[in-house]
UniProtKB/TrEMBL annotation:
CDD domains: UDPK_IM_like (cd14265)
Protein family membership: Belongs to the bacterial diacylglycerol kinase family.
Gene3D superfamilies (UniProt xref): 1.10.287.3610
UniProt subcellular location: Cell membrane
Membrane topology classification: Multi-pass membrane protein
Signal peptide (UniProt feature, chain positions): none
Keywords linked to the UniProt accession: ATP-binding, Cell membrane, Kinase, Lipid biosynthesis, Lipid metabolism, Membrane, Nucleotide-binding, Phospholipid biosynthesis, Phospholipid metabolism, Transferase, Transmembrane, Transmembrane helix
Protein name as it appears in the record: Diacylglycerol kinase family protein
Species this protein is from: Hymenobacter guriensis
Transmembrane segments annotated in the record for this chain: 38-57, 104-126
Length: 135
């Protein structure tokens, strides 16, 4: 019996290329935000400090999970805020009260998440820092 060539084109490699490209676009977006957003650079610095503290104090896996989720949530909120600001600026180059409200609410989401992350950081690190200072 002769072998019949598959009549369906091989799409698997194309799908992999598309997925790889989407990761590239995502990394490009994060890099662009880091270049243009001062607050995101502050969050990046805070991330490095928190990772260093976690390593120094040998926090537990559960604490690492809480810290990682908090850091990730702040980064996500800041990136979404940046995206919302860009779109609002595109569709409403002149001031409009609704455009201002959208930007304020997006910034408020970052603030709320950053305060929640700060709370996690205090719960995880404050007792250790306090003990280190001999208090």
């Amino acid at each position: 019996m002769p072998l019949v060539a598959d009549s369906q084109p091989r799409r698997f490699p194309a799908i992999l290329r598309q997925r790889a490209a989407s990761f590239g676009y995502a990394f490009r977006g994060v890099a662009a935000a880091l270049r243009t957003e001062v607050h995101l650079r502050l969050h990046a610095a805070a991330t490095l400090v928190v990772l260093g503290l976690g390593w120094y104090f040998k926090i537990t896996p559960g604490e690492w999970a809480a810290v990682a989720l908090s850091v990730g949530a702040v980064w996500c909120a800041e990136l979404m805020n940046t995206a919302i600001e860009a779109v609002v600026n595109l569709v409403s180059p002149e001031y409009h009260p609704l455009a201002g409200r959208a930007k304020d609410v997006a910034a408020g989401a970052v603030l709320v998440m950053a305060l929640a992350a700060l709370t996690v950081g205090l719960l995880v690190f404050a007792p250790r820092v306090w003990a280190l200072l001999g208090r």
